[in-house]
Specification:
CATH class: Mainly Alpha
Strand content: under 5%
CATH topology: Endonuclease III, domain 1
Number of strands: 2
Radius of gyration: 17 Å
Helix content: 40-55%
Order of helices and strands: EEHHHHHHHHHHH
Shape: globular
Strand order of the largest sheet: 1-2
Distance between the termini: 42 Å
CATH architecture: Orthogonal Bundle
CATH superfamily: Hypothetical protein, domain 2
């Protein structure tokens, strides 16, 4: 019998059960979720997409991700920072993305805030990774109860507050915890998932910016 939160696939490998919830999930679960990221554009994209996810299922965003990339010019935040009212209206007419005006405006606002942060500190990645929680803040074993519901953590609360202070929007503690999971700042593959030790090794080898 499988452990709650874990499932065995046809090859006998054990993975997080959510991996089987949609056809797009195995690749995302196995190759992307939890892999450490230090590229500023990729990190800005992840912040934006996690913001778009607020109140929605992640699979909806994942299925629209390529169109999001087209609509926002590859999430080049220096380009997006130049968007104005006409771009908001253009994006509101794009059926390939989530047409939520507040979230579109937030994406443009956050691009401007990203430019400010990079100009001030030199790197979005360096600034974000400074919020990586220490071992004392992380459970020794990640189980299903740890991240079901709307998880937050002391580190995600700190990150959320710091970004809001800088004028970022749609960066609440739950959204920032999802970002931390997605960018590899934490490894929340459940204990027993075949990907968990792989991610741990990638995190061990990862050179923090």
């Amino acid at each position: 019998m499988d452990t709650p939160g874990l499932s065995t696939d046809e090859t006998g490998q054990v993975y997080c059960t959510w991996r089987t919830a949609a056809p797009e999930y195995p690749r995302y679960h196995d190759r992307e979720w939890g892999v450490p990221v230090a590229d500023d554009v990729q990190l800005y994209e992840k912040i934006c997409l996690e913001g778009f996810q607020a109140g929605m299922a992640w699979i909806t965003i994942l299925r629209k991700r390529e169109q999001f990339r087209v609509a926002f010019e590859g999430f080049d935040f220096r380009r997006v920072a130049q968007y104005g009212a006409a771009d908001v209206e253009r994006l509101m007419q794009d059926p390939g993305i989530v047409r939520n005006r507040a979230k579109i405006v937030s994406t443009i606002n956050n691009a401007r805030r990203a430019c400010e942060l990079v100009d001030e500190t030199g790197s979005l990645a360096q600034w974000l990774w400074a919020f990586e929680p220490g071992p004392e803040e992380r459970p020794a074993v990640v189980d299903l109860a740890y991240w079901t519901g709307n998880p937050t953590s002391p580190a995600s609360v700190r990150l959320s507050k710091a970004l809001k202070k800088r004028g970022w929007t749609f960066v609440g503690p739950t959204t920032m915890y999802a970002l931390m999971q997605a960018m590899g700042m934490v490894n929340d593959h459940l204990d027993g998932c075949a990907c968990r030790p792989k991610i741990e090794e990638l995190r061990r080898q990862f050179k923090r910016p």
